[in-house]
Amino acid sequence: MDLNQSMRLLSSWIAQIGGLGLDLLWRFIHLVVSLWYIVSGIIEAVESYAISLGLNKKYSSINIEKLRCLAVVVDIEEARDVSKVIELLQWLRTIGVKQVGLFDSQGLLKKSKDMILGTVPGSVLSEEIGEKNSSPDQNPLALEFISSSDNKEAVMKAANILLQDYLKSSRPENDKGENFFTETHLNEALRVVGENVHAPDLLLVYGPIRSHLGFPAWRLRYTEIVHMGSLNYMRYGSLLKAIHKFTGVHQNYGT
Amino acid sequence: MNTQEEVGEFTQIFNALMSLMRKFIFKVLCAGPIPNHVSFIMDGNRRFAKKHNLTGLDAGHRAGFISVTYVLQYCKEIGIPYVTLYAFGVDNFKRQPEEVECVMDLMLEKVEYTINQAVSGNLKGVRVFFVGDLTSLNERLRVAAQRLMEVTEENKDLMVVVCVAYSTSHEIVHAVRESCVRKCDGTGDDPVVLQVSDVEECMYTSVVPDPDLVIRTGGGDRLSNFMTWQTSRSLLHSTATLWPELGLWHLVWAILKFQRMQDYLEKKKKLD
């Protein structure tokens, strides 16, 4: 083996050892980060129990009127456990929330709609509020069930309605559709295809990460998005804390 | 050697050491997966100016621009191919006219400065793209933005998308309108039906893939009408740090968070 080959072999070994060293260091850093998350999770759990027991006076009263519409996004793996969703809704009703949109990307909660409505006392479908002349419950919890089909697909349905209207219209040549395709028109078309266009004030995400997971984009503009962790480990105190924090938020909506 | 020269030399050595340390940190970070596209909601410039008693309507935004240069440098060194910056939203036009004019003038100044840097060869592989309703910008700024896009067209290391006069709702309406008009102009007897791909092709941000990581500064927990269509599978990271104060460690922390959740994010993408 000549000198050049030896040098190349040596460089290759050094590169491999260097790469291994960097990889080990990277894993060590992630171990430290994971430990940090475990410690902060324990602190959060203790704080949450203190809030649930009423030990923190700050959360004893919440200006719930500010929260007109709450949305809950559930990761599809966690949405399979409907009992946890039902428990969450019961907590929300206790806190005084009046309107909740439940979202999971594949519509599992939509399929369990009847069970949820039958189990959560005072819950009704939000589209039925106002249709009934009298409600047995004076403070119903209006529920809306949302999935990914209410996101891009719904916008396409609405867009196709506008497209058909545009095709039928007598428009000048070289028209660019500026008067035909506006936010108002799209809103109206979304209502025609049965979509709710109101934006929730607060979106609680139950799942491994803070992500809206495909919640209807058209409705998400200035919604506060809070990550609540796994639905399996949900805590009443954390829920109170998130809602309380929301009521203290002041938005300028870009101005 | 006098004191000034000593200080100058010390500063040079210190900067060189900092640069080496930074490169080492990035080498370690790159042992794991790196986001393909990071978006930044650059909030907090005005609060920064107030916090530090800076005068001038654009003082906070000037400090914000310095932060932009550092963040882009870090992203390039890490090897992130796409970065999007939410520079000015459609709703921001509702601010006081003097403030809007000030921000527009500052943007023009910085775009012209960047053009000079690009022409001098200092931009080193950075391609700049302006997206949004550019027709609502004044002509000088629009022309300058177009010029910057042209002079950086050949650069391939890092694509920086600057969202100006942008909002998701505006983008969706614009994309629906564009795609409908295109469909109507098409020939053939096929039924005229819009698909998701037709609309997505016409979106302002169609030049980049969907973001993997969205970083919002300033403590807000909302997207503020920014890329809500494109962020279904994005990790949303929020920090209370104001944009001009965003530093290396904030970016490293956000990427570490992304790396922790990478398996989950990949699984979600495959389900689509």
From TrEMBL, chain A:
This is ditrans,polycis-polyprenyl diphosphate synthase [(2E,6E)-farnesyldiphosphate specific]. Belongs to the UPP synthase family. Its cofactor is Mg(2+). Gene3D superfamilies: Decaprenyl diphosphate synthase-like. Coiled coil: none annotated. PANTHER family: DEHYDRODOLICHYL DIPHOSPHATE SYNTHASE COMPLEX SUBUNIT NUS1 (PTHR21528:SF0). It comes from Camelina sativa (False flax). Its main location: endoplasmic reticulum. Keywords: Endoplasmic reticulum, Magnesium, Membrane, Transferase, Transmembrane, Transmembrane helix. It is an enzyme of class 2 (transferase). It is found in: Endoplasmic reticulum membrane. SUPFAM superfamilies: Undecaprenyl diphosphate synthase. Pathway: Protein modification; protein glycosylation. InterPro entries: Nus1/NgBR (IPR038887), UPP_synth-like_sf (IPR036424). It catalyses: n isopentenyl diphosphate + (2E,6E)-farnesyl diphosphate = a di-trans,poly-cis-polyprenyl diphosphate + n diphosphate. Its EC number is 2.5.1.87.
Automatic annotation (TrEMBL), chain B:
It comes from the Eukaryota. Its cofactor is Mg(2+). Coiled coil: none annotated. It is an enzyme of class 2 (transferase). Its EC number is 2.5.1.-. Keywords: Transferase. Pfam families: Prenyltransf (PF01255). The keyword Membrane does not apply. Pathway: Protein modification; protein glycosylation. CDD domains: Cis_IPPS. PROSITE patterns: UPP_SYNTHASE. Belongs to the UPP synthase family. NCBIfam families: uppS (TIGR00055). Catalyzes cis-prenyl chain elongation to produce the polyprenyl backbone of dolichol, a glycosyl carrier-lipid required for the biosynthesis of several classes of glycoprotein. This is Alkyl transferase.
